[in-house]
Write a structure and sequence with these properties.
Elements: E1 2-3, E2 5-10, E3 18-25, E4 32-47, E5 53-59, E6 65-74, E7 77-86, E8 101-109, E9 118-128, E10 141-145, E11 155-156, E12 161-171, E13 175-185, E14 201-203, H1 205-247
Parallel strand pairs: 12-14
Antiparallel strand pairs: 1-6, 2-3, 3-4, 4-5, 4-13, 6-7, 7-8, 8-9, 9-10, 9-11, 12-13
C-alpha cells in the first residue's frame, strides 16, 4: 500500500477547522494519480443498550495518516482508492490512542464517457465508538456505507478536477460526511503533488446555480435602481409643474 504525501494547513482562530491536502503517488513514486484539498465534517448515528438512537457530530481537525492505490482492478473495473485516517474532534482519549477512524473513497472509470473520465464508485466510514465518549453504545466498531440513494457528484475527465463549495456524501443509518472548499482529481498522472495554477475544474451543481444567480440578482438590483430614479424624476417634474401653475 502506497504512502501518501500529506500536508495539513490549519486555519488560525477557527476551532477544529482544518484544511487538509493529500496526494496519492503512483507505484514509481514520481507522479500522482489523486489530489484532494478540502475541509470535512460529518454526522453519525448510533444505538445505545437502552435502544436509544443518538447523534454525534464531528469535524476532521487533522489527518493522522492516509494511504491510497493508483490503477487497481475490482470486479473487472479499473479503480483508484483514497483512505483518510483521523480522530474526530481531535479525540485524545486513551482508548483512541491507536485506533483512528477511516474514510475510504473508491473512484472508478466512467464507462459512459471517454478521455479518462472518472466518478465515485463507493465509499465507507469505519469508526470505533470509544467508551469514554459513546457511553453504553451497543457496538464498539461500526461501518457506515454509501447510502443506496446517494448521488455522489464528484466526477471529471482527462486531467479536469471537480470543485464544490459544499458537497455531502450520504451514508447508511442517516449519517453523512460533508466536504467544503473541495478540490479533487483522480485518474491523473501529475508531476506535482499540488494543484497548479493552470488546473481546470468542473463545478458542482450547487456552485453553478449560485454562479447563475449572481448576474440575475445584479440585474434585478440595477433594474430596481433605474426604476427608482425614473420615478423620482417623474415626481420631480410633477412637483415643478404644480409650482409653476401656483406662481402664475
Amino acid at each position: 500500500m502506497n504512502k501518501i504525501s500529506l500536508f495539513i494547513a490549519l486555519f488560525a482562530g477557527v476551532a477544529f477547522t482544518t484544511a487538509f491536502h493529500v496526494a496519492v503517488p503512483t507505484e514509481s513514486g514520481s507522479q500522482y494519480c489523486i489530489i484532494l484539498d478540502a475541509e470535512a465534517s460529518g454526522t453519525i448515528t448510533y444505538t445505545t443498550i437502552s435502544n436509544e438512537t443518538k447523534t454525534f457530530e464531528f469535524k476532521i481537525p487533522a489527518l493522522t495518516s492516509s494511504h491510497g492505490k493508483c490503477l487497481d482492478t475490482q470486479n473487472g473495473t479499473t479503480t483508484e482508492k483514497l483512505s483518510l485516517e483521523f480522530y474526530p474532534n481531535n479525540v485524545t482519549t486513551q482508548e483512541a490512542a491507536s485506533r483512528p477512524w477511516e474514510f475510504t473513497i473508491i473512484f472508478k472509470e466512467d464507462s459512459r464517457q471517454v478521455n479518462n473520465a472518472y466518478v465515485i464508485d463507493n465509499y465507507n466510514l469505519r469508526v470505533e465508538l470509544y467508551p469514554e465518549i459513546f457511553e453504553n453504545a451497543t457496538e464498539q466498531f461500526v461501518n457506515y456505507f454509501k447510502d443506496e440513494k446517494a448521488e455522489a457528484e464528484w466526477h471529471g475527465e482527462k486531467t479536469i478536477g471537480f470543485t464544490c463549495s459544499k458537497s455531502g456524501l450520504s451514508l447508511t443509518d442517516d449519517s453523512s460526511i460533508v466536504f467544503e472548499h473541495l478540490k479533487v482529481v483522480a485518474f491523473g498522472l501529475f508531476d506535482s503533488a499540488n494543484f497548479t495554477d493552470t488546473q481546470g475544474f468542473e463545478q458542482c451543481k450547487l456552485d453553478i446555480r449560485t454562479s447563475d444567480l449572481v448576474p440575475i440578482v445584479v440585474g434585478a438590483c440595477l433594474a430596481g435602481l433605474v426604476i427608482a430614479v425614473l420615478i423620482a424624476y417623474l415626481i420631480g417634474r410633477a412637483r415643478a409643474k404644480r409650482q409653476g401653475y401656483t406662481s402664475v
